[in-house]
Specification:
The protein is α+β, with helices and mostly antiparallel strands. The protein contains five helices and nine strands; from the N terminus they run ββαββββαβαββαα.
């Protein structure tokens, strides 16, 4: 079984988070193991073009776009280990992102378009890679992490707001939907 997709490409489970089961395929012989790894987590597997560029994320809380966060993992790939296993401080998070202001504005606008197009509510995070000065969506997180190292609290905190205020804001909006 040969997959005719230009190398390199990304193989990932369709419905998994935290980059679990994801592989970057650089050689044809890596295809089957990558698909096998992804299928351990989901019967549906996605294959997408590999995009090399700055990883950024835009969080939206109740329709408010938060500052763009730039993610700089030690390996260059923000996988599960870079998110959770490395000693604290190994992955660098830059808030607001040190990218061109026009790219940041474009990323914020794209995130809001995604938020509205998918009729999202409450808290969501839109992950992107910047390729040729264009932010390209790679993931939509409808239940983003809320830990000490999570990205939404980092963006929220950059506005001088507390974690407790973030949780309260999300819960207040949710209670209005009941």
């Amino acid at each position: 079984d040969t997959i005719h997709f230009p190398l390199p490409f990304v193989v990932k489970p369709a419905n998994e988070g935290s980059s679990i089961g994801i592989s970057i395929v650089k050689k044809q012989r890596e295809v089957k193991p990558a698909i096998g790894r992804a299928r351990k987590y989901d019967r549906k597997v996605m294959i997408e073009r590999y995009i090399e560029g700055d990883e950024i994320t835009v969080s939206i809380v109740n329709g408010e776009v938060l500052p763009v966060v730039q993610v700089k993992p030690p390996s260059g790939f923000y996988d599960f280990e870079a998110k959770y296993k490395y000693t604290k401080g190994m992955t660098e998070y830059i808030v607001p992102a040190k990218i061109d202001k026009n790219i940041a504005k474009k990323a914020s606008a794209i995130a809001m378009e995604v938020y509205n197009a998918f009729e999202l509510a409450g808290c969501a995070r839109i992950d992107m890679l910047v390729d040729d000065d264009l932010p390209k969506v790679i993931d939509i997180n409808t239940s983003p992490g809320m830990t000490e190292t999570s990205l939404v609290p980092k963006a929220w905190g950059n506005l001088g707001r507390t974690f407790d205020e973030l949780v309260e804001t999300i819960l207040m909006e949710a209670s209005l939907k009941i």
